[in-house]
């Protein structure tokens, strides 16, 4: 989701001293700024631009991985954040793309998920709900593209302005995405690849 850009007070303070500071301030999304830093997503499972490891691979449809959802950590959420949501989307799948995971109603005080939070029951402990992915399974479904060129998987954490979304466990991931997009204060992403 695109967010408006802001010119914070520090931009104007340094506008005439350093042209580079102006560029940094112009490019910083207002919804992602928090204590001078952007909303950030990191992972012990995924590295930006890297390859999906064996633990996250799906366990059906010709793939035989353990299908563990990735460990994720985020920081510097926008002011006013009341909950978080997470999606994983394959933008290179034929047609409209492929939803691998959508999670909502993660409380605002939760800023990380351990690996395999989907299957282990960790998400249910704090009331989060998971969508039905495009494998037609509730929860996480890891990468398993057809043989050929690697696919790009976009992992996104969203900061939301509401505590809960009006959704139920097992609803389609595309429906989760529509609700999330309309209530997002900002987002942070990691993109990884996988092919076979």
From TrEMBL:
First and last residue of the signal peptide: 1-35
Regions that span the bilayer: none
Name under which the protein is recorded: PBP family phospholipid-binding protein
Keyword terms, alphabetized: Signal
Pfam families per UniProt: PBP
Family matches, as SUPFAM superfamilies: PEBP-like
Domain of life: Bacteria
């Amino acid at each position: 989701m695109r967010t408006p850009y802001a010119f914070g007070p520090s931009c104007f303070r340094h506008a005439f001293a350093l042209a580079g500071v102006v560029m940094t301030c112009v490019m910083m999304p207002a919804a992602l700024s928090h204590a001078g830093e952007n909303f950030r997503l990191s992972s012990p499972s995924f590295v930006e631009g890297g390859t999906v490891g064996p633990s996250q691979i799906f366990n059906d449809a010709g793939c035989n991985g353990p299908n563990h959802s990735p460990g994720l950590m985020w920081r510097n959420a926008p002011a006013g954040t009341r909950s978080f949501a997470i999606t994983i989307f394959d933008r290179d799948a034929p047609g409209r793309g492929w939803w691998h995971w959508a999670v909502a109603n993660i409380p605002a005080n939760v800023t990380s998920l351990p690996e395999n939070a989907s299957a282990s029951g960790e998400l249910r402990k704090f009331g989060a709900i998971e969508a039905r992915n495009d494998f037609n399974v509730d929860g996480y479904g890891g990468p398993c593209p057809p043989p050929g060129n690697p696919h790009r998987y976009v992992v996104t954490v969203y900061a939301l302005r509401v505590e809960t979304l009006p959704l139920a466990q097992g609803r389609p991931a595309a429906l989760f995405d529509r609700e999330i997009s309309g209530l997002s204060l900002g987002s942070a992403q990691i993109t990884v690849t996988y092919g076979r």
